[in-house]
Specification:
Length: 353
């Protein structure tokens, strides 16, 4: 991965974007999009839409959500400790002793998740997973009044684990789910623009996926795409403790996972497969029996319906502060998207026949 591209990815990963409060990371997205798109706009919900060849046909939407799981401050006690509710699918076990940052009214506020030390716990409690309401955030405040100088009820926050390169072209971060997709779409638009293409391309950094794909629903309605390719993370199963007969066999470094199922247009899937094979992009295949629980769901039924393709990038330890991904899988996914865009011709039909 080139140095500039890696720097953009690191900025994305290290910028907090709890669902519903994505503005800081979207500012970074807008700055990057301005370098490669004919026009960039932000809608009422906060979706950033970068457009290349706006009058082209067919209209293809490339969607990846920029929001991450987090928490929201719900109570401050007299001693200045903060209690919180989850934003998205937080695992309480992964919260214990984590460092956090809260988007306070005067700027970022650092803190840690507190829990009673093991020495003070009852024997039975030591064998149980903690409940979220038994945890709190300690920002070092002296009391409630001191805490309220920096934090208000409703302030959001995230766990803090900065972007870190690992061995063999892999990396760890707090929010590859799903800010890595924003990088992939930007890179795909850059690659596609290196040669002519007839399609109108609408790259979208969607918001609020973790709480119901609200941004995808709104942006798809606005764009009216003929086809949309959604990029999200998928569970890598190449680590201990996974029963592959139930979870499937998906590994890092083996390329993106192309999904098949009721949520996926069969023609879009076959076109992605053809593009991957012609470009020499490795890929894996996933079977989804119903709804995908991604942005693909609301986009599929937007207006009179949209042909949707779905790509998952393998990820270890999803919805924890230490997710791991393969950078080569990300690059391969961007190449695949660019190849898909270049192959789109006016009049192409996605009607299943």
């Amino acid at each position: 991965m080139k140095k500039a591209s890696l720097a953009f990815l690191e900025r994305l990963m290290n910028t907090p974007s709890p669902s519903g409060f994505e503005q800081p990371v979207q500012r970074i997205v807008r700055d990057e999009a301005a370098k490669l798109a004919d026009e960039v706009r932000t809608d009422l919900h906060g979706n950033v839409i970068a457009v290349k060849n706006p009058s082209g046909t067919p209209r293809v939407m490339l969607a990846g959500h920029c929001d991450q799981i987090g928490f929201i401050v719900s109570y401050i006690n007299d001693e200045g400790f903060l209690y919180f509710r989850k934003i998205g699918g937080i695992d309480p076990t992964a919260c214990v002793s984590q460092r956090v940052v809260i988007q306070g009214k005067q700027g970022p506020v650092a803190g840690v998740i507190g829990r009673k030390a093991i020495h003070m716990q009852e024997p039975d409690d030591r064998t149980k997973a903690p409940k979220l309401d038994a945890l709190w955030i300690d920002i070092g405040a002296k009391d409630k009044e001191d805490a309220q100088k920096l934090v208000r009820l409703g302030d959001p926050g995230v766990f803090v684990q900065s972007f870190q390169l690992l061995q063999n072209g892999r990396a760890a971060s707090m929010a590859f789910d799903n800010k890595m997709a924003v990088w992939i779409i930007a890179e795909a638009m850059r690659l596609a623009s290196q040669s002519s293409h007839k399609a109108g391309v609408f790259g979208v950094s969607t918001v609020q996926e973790e709480i119901g794909s609200i941004g995808a629903h709104a942006s798809a309605f606005s764009i009216e795409p003929d086809v949309a390719i959604v990029v999200d993370v998928g569970h890598a199963t190449d680590h201990p403790g996974v029963e592959k007969t139930k979870a499937g066999d998906y590994a890092l470094d083996k390329g993106p996972i192309l999904s098949r199922g009721a949520n996926v247009n069969p023609r879009a899937f076959e076109m992605l497969v053809a593009a991957a094979e012609q470009e020499g992009v490795p890929y894996q295949t996933d079977a989804i029996g119903g709804r995908s629980a991604t942005d693909a769901d609301p986009i599929q039924y937007s207006r009179a319906g949209v042909a949707v393709g779905l790509i998952h990038v393998p990820l270890r330890y999803m919805h924890t502060p230490c997710e791991i991904i393969s950078l080569s899988d990300m690059e391969h996914t961007a190449r695949l998207l660019a190849a898909f865009v270049r192959r789109l011709e006016p009049g192409v039909s996605f009607v299943p026949e």
